[in-house]
Automatic annotation (TrEMBL), chain A:
Organism: Chironomus riparius
InterPro entries found in the cross-reference section: Ribosomal_Su5_D2-typ_SF, Ribosomal_uS9, Ribsml_uS5_D2-typ_fold_subgr
Compartments reported by the entry: Mitochondrion
Descriptive protein name: Small ribosomal subunit protein uS9m
A Pfam family recorded for this sequence: Ribosomal_S9
Region (Disordered): 366-385
Keywords recorded for this protein, A-Z: Mitochondrion, Ribonucleoprotein, Ribosomal protein, Transit peptide
GO-annotated biological processes: translation
GO cellular component: mitochondrial inner membrane; mitochondrial small ribosomal subunit
Family: Belongs to the universal ribosomal protein uS9 family.
GO molecular function: RNA binding; structural constituent of ribosome
From TrEMBL, chain B:
Organism: Chironomus riparius
Protein family: Belongs to the universal ribosomal protein uS7 family.
CDD domains associated with the record: uS7_Mitochondria_Mammalian (cd14870)
Upper taxonomic lineage: Eukaryota, Metazoa, Ecdysozoa, Arthropoda, Hexapoda
Residue ranges constituting the Small ribosomal subunit protein uS7 domain according to the UniProt record: 65-217
Gene Ontology terms: cellular component: ribonucleoprotein complex; ribosome
Protein name, as recorded: Small ribosomal subunit protein uS7 domain-containing protein
BP-aspect Gene Ontology terms: translation
Keyword field: Ribonucleoprotein, Ribosomal protein
Pfam family, one: Ribosomal_S7
Top-level taxonomic group: Eukaryota
């Protein structure tokens, strides 16, 4: 019965073409228009008809958008008085837009932009069913086939690993600890990224299911066997460019090398720090020595990076700070000194400084007072009556 | 498979939802810094440092530093002494306490007749603080549990962290308790020396608590039933 109907379907050339198309791009935007003539002749399901109409509308819309984008690029080239060819490059377009329409809006997405329409309008799913209305995917009726397919795959992998583990225990082999997955440098992609990846809306609860299932997978001793699958859904935790990008010191007129670190921030304090090498351990803060700070704790903070790198008597420090209180100012200078010292110490010492957290900027600020409360956290005294 | 069966029969409950601390400025994957040189060395030796090679690390706090004079317990103790955010005053009181302990111990040292006696006298006040805290740490405490309208004092074991907290708090409370004419450093020096010697009021307080737990051991099963 099933075979017959499929054969019948395949005999129709238009249908064959359509089936091919639908199978070929399961997820993604439909880019070319589809001939709707056969709708009159064939018995196509209502769902398919609706879909095809929607797809055609979308295609036409995208087509006009693409045209407009092309013309827009030419206009841009005219306005900037340049060759239109260079505006094939998206970076050049962004540059021109920010020049022509400067914006001080905080959110980058709120500023004027000009991007290819595919980037602006979200991807749509292609048809998930054929023209008789039968779904392609066995999880179609969950309404989130991609998401549940992911969970299904994860459990499938887990079962496979269990089987493998049983086999191994039967052969009395144990896991090589060196092969264990090292995942401390990455984390699961967040909900938004997962939604983009699956082209489906996901509830927080479902995201939690995803994290739980995947965590169970990586806890398995043989999880390294499905590393490829796991890696698709992980993202690295840290951008290392900040740490690797160590500036070269300048040379002043006395022949000493120096580095100036600007924008040293902590709480409300702002300042800049200059580290000179070689030096003799002189410290100048706003024209005074360490006694600029009244409290011991603040003085200790200034010396912290110097003691840690053992450069206390090898460099000179000059700092200007304003704003905030003593501990904020000390914290700002501490960060500046640590950042400046990177240029004068070995790479492994820089790494150790990172482990000590000295290269991390402390973004913590005073927590605001809340209405209906006495302070940031403290509540008013409460009486029942 | 066996591992899984064990896992699921023993702890067959849904894994709890992990809620991020809404107030933290750092993302949840940030870890605490290792700012002490010897601690870092230990990490490098054990090879655990490779685990945090790509993990972002929080900045050390204002009262942290890598100097030899920095001690975790001492800075914690300063925080317990502190009132109304006056940290500088708290630090001053702490260092005054240490000075007094040092003077008392040196006096004892010089009064001691034999070499053996001299050797037994601890001169480092920080070591004395550590000894005092270790001696005062409780291992059990009682929590009230309501059963059938009656409140029972049920003995429960306490975590290491909370035992340290209790020890420090008792020491500070004992130092504050006395007549208002004696200053905190004076009183605290005596309390610390007493506790380090495994005697005194705070150690007694610990024993009292343990005795109470012992007396209520019949109710211990209320902890889980």
């Amino acid at each position: 019965m099933l075979l017959k109907s499929t054969l019948k379907l395949l005999n129709n050339p238009v249908n064959r073409l359509l089936i091919n198309r639908i199978n070929s791009f399961n997820y993604g935007t439909v880019t070319s228009s589809i001939n709707l003539d056969f709708l009159k002749r064939d018995k196509t399901s209502k769902a398919m008809k609706a879909y095809l109409e929607r797809a055609q509308q979308h295609d036409e819309f995208m087509k006009t958008q693409n045209e407009e984008f092309k013309i827009g690029k030419r206009h841009l080239a005219n306005m900037m008085g340049e060759d239109p060819v260079i505006y094939e490059d998206q970076e050049k377009i962004d540059e021109a837009i920010s020049y022509l329409m400067p914006s001080a809006l905080y959110d980058k997405r709120a500023r004027p932009m000009m991007k290819p329409p595919e980037k602006i309008f979200p991807e749509r799913k292609a048809a998930e069913f054929d023209e008789t209305g039968r779904a392609h995917h066995f999880l179609f009726y969950t309404s989130k086939p991609n998401f549940f397919q992911l969970l299904y795959d994860a459990v499938e992998h887990l079962n496979g690993l269990n089987k493998f583990e049983d086999n191994m225990t039967r052969q009395q082999k144990s896991v090589d600890p060196a092969l264990r997955l090292e995942l401390s440098g990455s984390e699961w992609i967040n909900q938004d990224q997962l939604e983009l990846k699956l082209v489906e809306n996901i509830q927080p609860v479902e995201y939690r299911y995803f994290v739980n299932v995947m965590n169970r997978l990586i806890e398995h001793p043989y999880s390294f066997r499905v590393k490829d699958f796991i890696d698709i859904y992980r993202r690295p935790l840290m951008n290392q460019t900040i740490i690797l990008d160590i500036p070269k010191p300048h040379i002043d007129k006395d022949g000493k090398s120096f580095i100036t670190v600007y924008e040293c921030l902590r709480k409300k304090a702002r300042g800049d720090v200059t580290v000179r090498f070689p030096g003799s351990g002189k410290i100048l803060i706003n024209g005074q020595d360490v006694t600029y700070f009244e409290y011991d704790q603040s003085r200790e903070q200034i010396l912290f990076p110097l003691i840690f790198t053992e450069m206390l008597d090898k460099v000179d420090i000059e700092a200007n700070v304003e704003g905030g209180g003593p501990s904020g100012q000390a914290g700002a200078i501490r960060w500046g000194i640590a950042m400046g010292l990177r240029s004068f110490v070995d790479a492994d010492v820089v790494e150790k400084m990172r482990y000590a957290g000295l290269l991390q900027r402390d973004y913590r600020r005073r927590e605001r007072k809340k209405p209906g409360q006495e302070g940031a956290r403290r509540k008013f005294t409460w009486k029942k009556r | 498979m066996l591992r899984n069966i064990l896992q699921f029969t023993k702890f067959s409950r849904a894994s709890p939802t992990i809620l991020a601390n809404n107030y933290s400025q750092y993302e949840p994957h940030f870890i605490n810094p290792v700012f002490k040189k010897d601690e870092q060395e230990a990490l490098i030796k054990s090879g655990e440092i490779s685990k945090i090679a790509f993990v972002p690390i929080k900045a050390p706090r204002n009262n942290d530093n890598s100097s030899v004079f920095h001690d975790h317990r001492v800075s914690k103790m300063v925080n317990y002494i502190m009132q109304g955010g006056k940290k500088e005053l708290a630090r001053k009181l702490m260092s005054e306490t240490f000075e007094r302990i040092k003077r008392i111990q040196i006096e004892r040292y010089h009064k001691a007749q034999t070499e053996e006696e001299k050797e037994n006298i601890v001169l480092n006040p920080v070591t004395i603080l550590h000894m005092a805290i270790e001696n005062v740490r409780p291992i059990l405490m009682v929590t009230p549990v309501r059963r059938g309208g009656v409140k029972y004092q049920v003995p429960v074991p306490i975590s290491e962290q909370s035992s340290y907290y209790r020890a420090c708090k008792w020491l500070v409370e004992a130092s504050r308790e006395h007549d208002r004419k004696t200053h905190l450093p004076e009183k605290m020096a005596f309390e610390l020396l007493d506790a380090a010697n495994n005697s005194g009021r705070v150690v007694k307080r610990k024993h009292d608590l343990h005795r109470l737990c012992e007396a209520n051991r019949a109710y211990a099963h209320y902890r889980w039933s």
